[in-house]
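Hi V.,

You were right to ask for the full record rather than a summary. Here it is.
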Amino acid sequence: MANQLYRLALFALVLASLVFTARAQADVARPLIVTSALSGVYGEILERLEECSAFAIDKQVISLSDAELSEASVRKADSIIAIGTRASAAVYELAPSVPVLSALITESGFEHLAARHYGSVAQALEAGVSAIYLDQPPARLYRLGMLLVPDADRVGVIATDPASASIVDNISGDTITTPELEWVTLTDLAKPIKLLGPLMQRSAFVIALPGKRAITLSAAKWILEIGSSTRTPVIAYSRKYATSGALAAVYTSPVDVADQVADVCTRTQGFASGPAAVYPPEHFSVEINAAVARVLGIPVRDPGYYRDALMRAEGRP
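Predicted structure:
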């Protein structure tokens, strides 16, 4: 009889433990991933994150293409990762009290949303909002150009935003010897040939920088056409730019985005456990247009060679 009572007591204890654990798990907050969509680059990022051990946890994924973000979902999360500008805007709109990390967002995009929803970037950081910028550092594009055209004595820089003019100072302040730099700003495309023609004729290569979306697509068309007619190598900021006629590009791929999100989330002072921060893109990819290189008479190697060389130039293994 005593033995039977012992077994019943033990069973009751185990059952109570299971019930308590189930309730505790139901109450535990989960990381929330909000993405602008599930297809395209967003889907590639999510797929890569699934391969990272840091995300082999109970989490919730909400796609704005399928549903609206609710306050209830935000309240249940202990941290939020927003992938894409639209996802970041939706998250900021609800002013969550938990740490937020925005990825797949440009510097100008983050600055605009931070000013709109928090007042400034500084205030967004104080509110616990971090961001990983999509824009590759101009010095990285410059280094790639110098690897491809090592005897360059003049480099042209093409911007689509007057604020990007400070980028020349950024490149000039680099630790490597810098040839003479000349820049133009395409604030409009009324006379692109008048601006770009002389610059490209004088430059060993030109760097095309990202900027205002309203004119970057048109600017790319003119830059590639004039670059082709003057036989001037173009170093650009997107893979599509390179496949469309630029000699090469340094860009942030979906895998690069996901890998840095995983890095930021797993470091000791990650975005959820340390102060909010703005992160430049540490991961990057390189695209080389071998057909354009042949036309220009520039010998090229595998993209991985240039990526490794850029890593070494930055003192990274």
